[in-house]
Amino acid sequence: MIKIFLLQTRIARIALIFAIVIPIINCKAKESQWFYKERDNNRKEGIIERPVSARELEVVSFTGLKEDYDLDSSVVMRIKYFSPKSDTVNIKADELVPIFNYQMDAFPQSCDYGWNEFLYWPSATILDTLKLTIADLGILANYRTDFDLLIPAFIYHSILKNRHEIYYNLQVKSIYDLEMISYAVKRKDEKEELIEEILEMHFSSNSPIAFSIDFIDLKEGYYDIEIESRIKGEFGGPSLQFTFYHKLIIE
Fold first, then answer.
1. Are 212 and 116 a contacting pair, CB within 8 Å?
2. Which is nearest to 60 in space by CA: 165, 209, 179?
3. 13 contacts 70 by C-beta, under 8 angstroms
4. Would you say the C-alpha torsion 90, 62, 232, 193 has a positive or negative sign?
5. Out of 43-47, 122-126, 158-162, least confident range
6. Alpha-carbon span 104 to 111, nearest angstrom
7. In this structure, are residues 241 and 226 in contact, taking their beta carbons and an 8 Å threshold?
8. DSSP labels for 34-70?
9. How would residue 161 be classed by pLDDT, with cut points 50, 70 and 90?
10. How confident is the model over 109-152, as pLDDT tens digits?
11. Can you list the alpha helix ranges (DSSP code H) found in the chain?
12. Region class of 32: left (phi > 0), else alpha (psi between -120 and 50), else beta
């Protein structure tokens, strides 16, 4: 069974603190402690000025496990991912619904075939102050030399080993109001659609659309995901395709 749902963000909670946190940030702007800058010699993180997405249709998050945590708890997050090849990997995190324009970019890291890990991302640096948790963020990992080969990221702060991940969480955005979006999963370079779904309803522009894709019956290997859409009042819309490597067991 494939579960497709619109992302349920925490707008109400963020709105309650918006009037408090933003003035604090403005008052301390000259101190630049929350500005986007290098931290802990492994990433750049903070509040950054950036425009709303200008892409017709884009992937903004692709993850397996996203282990959330309580707002009153400070945790040190890690990001684990499986790479089917040796390359350089980029990992990015930003708000799915941009309230503060928070962004984190891990320094590009060389990876080997197998499981790799980005080890140190403490919530106390920025996220705790903004009252954001991992559930508010999109996480995207890809290769420096191959942007169309995405890497499912597993974000955790406790024990992750020996987990069997059967769902992938995919989130996309469009600059258009959409009235239909669909996706299909295929073995790489094959035509047969192993999983497919069409959803017809209103999707507001620049709002995240989330899919939970069940991979329990699919074998390890490369897969293509094709996404198509229809703009409200039009006959067609933007589409995209990407490839990823499915690894069922985390080691």
1. no
2. 209
3. no
4. positive
5. 158-162
6. 19
7. yes
8. TBSEEETTTEEEEE---PPP-SSEEEEEEEEEE----
9. low
10. 999 999 999 999 999 999 999 999 999 999 999 998 887 899 99
11. 11-27, 127-130
12. left
**Which of the four pLDDT bands, split at 50, 70 and 90, describes residue 27?**
very low
Question: Residues 203, 148, 245, 239: what is their CA dihedral angle, to the nearest 10 degrees?
Answer: 30
User: In 10 A of CB 231, how many CB atoms?
Assistant: 18
- Per the DSSP assignment, residues forming a β-bridge with 90 are 142
- List Cβ<8 Å contacts ≥24 apart for 35-42: 36/103, 39/125, 40/120, 40/122, 40/125, 41/107, 42/106, 42/107, 42/118, 42/119, 42/120
Q: Which two tokens stand for residue 71?
A: 């707002």
Q: Which residues are 114's β-sheet partners? A: 83
Residue 169 has pLDDT above 50, yes or no: yes
- H/E element, 167: strand 167-174
Check pLDDT > 90 for residue 162: no
pLDDT of residue 29: 47
Nearest alpha-carbon partner for 99 in 44, 140, 48: 48
Q: Which of 133, 110, 136 is nearest to 8 (CA)?
A: 136
| Cα dist from 122 to 24, 74, 78, 129, whole Å | 21, 7, 9, 12
Least confident window among 2-16, 49-63, 73-87, 191-205:
2-16
Specify the higher pLDDT residue, 159 or 121: 121
